[in-house]
Amino acid sequence: MRSHLSRALRGVLTTAAVAGVFAATTTVPAEAASGYGRCQWGELCVFSAPLGQGQMLVVKKGMLTLGSWDNRIRSFTNHTDWGVCFNSLPNLDPKGEATHWYAGSQSFDESWMPQLDGAVSSLDVGPDADYFCAGESRYATYSWEDGPKARPAGLPASAAFGDVNSDGFADLLSRNKYGQLWSSHTYDSGGRDRLAGAGWNAMNKLTRHGDQNGDGKEDLFARDTSGVLWFYPGRGDGSFGVRARVGGGWNTMRDLVAAGDLSGDGKGDLLASDGAGTLWTYPGNGKGAFGARKKVGAGWKAMNELVGSGDMNSDQRADLVARDTAGRLWFYPGNGKGAFGARKLIGTGGWNTLTELAGLGDVTGDGRPDLIAHAPSQTGLQVYPGTGAANGGLKSAKTFAGVAKATFVF
């Protein structure tokens, strides 16, 4: 039968007894070769044996895999200002056994999670660690009450984009700080959140807007840090197939966005603004690539965010929403020929406080495309419902999803 005395208490009693024997003759030196005392203030240290014994590893940052330390951690001490999350599966997988601690020392076999003793395969440390442990913050999570609503049947393509698993609900794609790409689905849809892949921090631009290759599934474009643009065909289940190279040289573009069918030929197009402020339309060829580009106009250097918003004014043409450097929001009605009509002001200021603006199509279930926004200081996503009015205006925002501050959502 296991003693009711904890190992930590037994260690204290033993140390006290030994100290009493030698108190009259010598001073016991501070323990440095083993034990929790080896870990410096401001560090997170893990050990291969209980009570800080055995080998020690100083953890500098979160680790999706532990390499030679996989399934070896038996105790730890946390001298950082943050929480630490331990998970029994690699990649901080939500299906793993996981829990988090803040400051202090602990042997796993005498903790409330003894099943993690010698069974940790990934960990996180930092301000979001407790959220990662709970399965939240690893990806965007829709709220129970105000998540996406089912869309009306038979929506045209100009309003039906943003659904990565073809269930009739808008879905989120989010890249977290580890470069994992997740697809998130509202509770009412029956879909499940899933990891779509890792290594996405190699991409400095991610954009999507419906079907680009004619198979009826939502696809994705990504530009890597060397300027190569890649096409990722959607599988219709929240994940993506083998990528295809579109071409190089795209790092000359300040911004690029998949914007739906701008030219009226039934194929999805791409908009890109270059360093000189010229906006270009790249007509889609229906196979995930593009034909010869066409100049839309100059002066777009004043814009720091482009959004392929869909048909915001109910004329069955894809439109554009753009934010200028003064923080104003503009609506550009598509003319169906790859360009735009006279713009209209739909946001008078303050929009530059948002890190991301995105179009997911109809989020609210009324058949009209909406606008999504994320502020860096917030852990919630806002939806601005579209009105469908001729001026492309928006209704007041409401929170509909939670997301970590450092996560990119589109």
State the main characteristics.
disordered N terminus; 410 residues; mainly beta; 28 strands; 5-stranded antiparallel sheet
Q: Give the strand content.
A: 25-35%
Strand numbers in spatial order across the main sheet? 8-27-26-25-24
* Average predicted local confidence, pLDDT: 88
Low-confidence stretches: 1-32
Compute the gyration radius: what is it?
A: 26 Å
Write down how many β-strands occur, each being a DSSP E stretch of 2 or more residues: 28
Shape assignment: elongated
Tally the helices: what do you get? 3
Distance between the termini: 56 Å
Helix content: under 10%
Report the sheet with the most strands, covering strand number, pairing sense and barrel closure. 5 strands, antiparallel
Please identify the structural class as seen in this structure: mainly beta
Organism: Streptomyces poriferorum
Keywords: Signal
Protein name: FG-GAP-like repeat-containing protein
Signal peptide: 1-23
What does this structure look like?
This is FG-GAP-like repeat-containing protein. Pfam families: FG-GAP_3, Inhibitor_I36. It is built from 3 helices and 28 strands. The protein is elongated, with a radius of gyration of 26 Å. The strands form 7 sheets. A 5-stranded antiparallel β-sheet has the order 8-27-26-25-24, with no helix packed on it. It has a 4-stranded antiparallel β-sheet with strand order 2-1-3-6, with no helix packed on it. It has a 4-stranded antiparallel β-sheet with strand order 11-10-9-28, with no helix packed on it. The chain is mainly beta and 410 residues long. The model is unreliable at 1-32 (pLDDT under 50).
